[in-house]
Structure formats: C-alpha cells, structure tokens
Amino acid sequence: MSTPPKRMCVSPSFDNSFEKRGKKISIEGNIAAGKSTFVRMLQKVSNEWEVTPEPIAKWCNVQTTENAFEELSTSQKSGGNLLQMLYDKPSRWAYTFQTYASLSRVRSQLQPVSPKLREAEHPVQFYERSVFLIIKLSFSLLINGQQMCLAQCLFESGDLNETEWAIYQDWHSWLLNQYESQIELQCMKRLHLRGREEEQGIELEYLEKLHYKHECWLYNRTTQVDFEYLKDLPVLVLDVNDDFKNDKIKQECIIDKVKEFLSSL
Ligand SMILES: Nc1ncnc2c1ncn2[C@@H]1O[C@H](COP(=O)(O)OP(=O)(O)OP(=O)(O)O)[C@@H](O)[C@H]1O
Ligand SMILES: Nc1nc(=O)c2ncn([C@H]3C[C@H](O)[C@@H](CO)O3)c2[nH]1
Fold this sequence. Notes:
Bound molecules: adenosine-5'-triphosphate, 2'-deoxy-guanosine
Structural class: alpha/beta
Helix content: 40-55%
Number of strands: 5
Shape: globular
Oligomer: single chain
Order of helices and strands: HEHEHHHHHEEHHHHEH
Distance between the termini: 52 Å
C-alpha cells in the first residue's frame, strides 16, 4: 500500500507570530491631557514602536466617498467640520459625531501593519485612544489618571437621548465584536494653550466629568465593562503634569516607565 501523500505541514503564519510578539497599547486621557505630544515622543524612541494617531483631521473635514464627488469642484468637495458642529450644538450632532468617530477609529486601527513593524522582534503599536473607548480596552497607558467616556458623558448630559444612546451602544458593540480578533488591544489650560478653534467653547464642567469617568474606568476600575477579563487589564498611570516636552531628562524618565511596563506584560 502506498503511503498517503504527506500533509502540508502549515507552520504558524508569520502573521500569527506577529500577533503573538506584538503588543497593542492604547493611550487614554482627558482632552488636551497631552496624548498627541506623548505619542509623538514615543514614535522617536524605537524603530519597533509605531503610533496610530487619532483621526481628527477626518472629523474636521468630513468628505464624501471619492466617486461621489467626481463631478464636484475642489471647493464643493470641502467637507463639514463635525467636531465644530459637535461643540456648537451637541444635542443635534452628538450621535452623528460618535458614530463617525467610532467608524474612523475602527478603520484606522484595521490598517495593515507596516512591513517594518511586521519584521520587528518586539513590535509595539500605540493607539491614541482606542475604539474601545468605553466598551473595551486592552493594555492601557493612562495619562493624568483620567478616563475618557465621551459618548457616555454626552448621554448623561442629555445630548444623546435614550434612543440614540441605545442605538449607539448596540451598533458599537456589534462593530467591536465583528473586529474583536483583529483589533485586540489592548486640561483646560493646555486646551487653551493649544488653541484648537473647535474646542474653545468647552466648559470646565465637561472636562471634570471626563476626568471622573477616566478615574472610574482605569484607576478605580469601577466602570462596568463588557467582559470579565477587561477588568484586570494592566494599566500604567503616568503623571504628565510636569512639562516633559522640552526636558530630555523627564522624557527619558517617562520612556523608562513605558519600557518597564511593556516588559512586564
Ligand atoms: N507635559 C506637558 N507639559 C506642558 N504642556 C504640554 C504637555 N503635554 C502637552 N502639552 C501641551 O498641551 C496641549 C495639549 O496637548 P496635546 O495636543 O498633546 O493633547 P491631547 O491629549 O492629544 O488632546 P486631544 O484630547 O484633543 O487629542 C498642547 O499645546 C501641548 O503642547
Ligand atoms: N464626544 C466625543 N467622542 C469621542 O469619541 C471623541 N474622540 C475625540 N473627541 C474629541 C475630543 C477633542 O476635542 C478632539 C480630539 O481628541 O476630539 C471625542 N469627542
């Protein structure tokens, strides 16, 4: 009897091993806590670290799909500023904003990994806020000990009504479940200093609420989360009250803490 043909021995694909080697870190924190500044600093630390910034440009200039405006002139193509619309009239635009923000986050977090990172021995992907804003997060680096629950805040202030909140949670959970295996993740002074026009009307009360939400979510860990395992995800709290932007020694100190955190995972 002839021996049966040998089965192809499929070694674990490179992609799988990347998934095993790689770490995904979400950088969370209040508005203008310093997340972008921090991730820009991280980007320079190692070739094995890559950063996915928040897709804010998309929110400030919402475009229709390419084909849809083939006939339009450049000025007609210019999109609406949804972030401005949100802050001008939250009761009208909160739902639209949350929907679009989630969609654009999922999209950017599903971007293929760069070849350079794929080949790295200890690849780390940092996300400036994750799609798991309130529902899910993995390893988190927390800046200023605050939690971000923006959508929930809008619901509590009445800018999202019961129906909108229910619909938002329904499709947001669905979306996360769909992509779970692929996206496993893991103030006022600075806000004015940065001077982003859309945000100049934000009130201290809103930032305080966000601060409290961050505390409950990532520090006290009292926010209800969808899955049991999320309760125990490691969180690193960084105090960024000090200005590290122009201080090499402070930067090194923070980076050392990040490295220590990564090696403990
Ligand atoms: N450690 C720091 N010390 C002093 N100023 C800082 C520090 N980190 C950031 N800033 C300044 O604070 C402002 C807000 O910082 P940044 O844009 O990084 O915040 P963010 O958390 O990314 O904001 P957002 O929530 O809007 O995305 C900027 O003007 C920045 O230069
Ligand atoms: N309501 C709300 N929901 C979100 O998911 C969300 N993500 C970001 N933002 C706002 C905060 C900054 O002004 C600005 C840049 O972070 O965008 C959000 N606002």
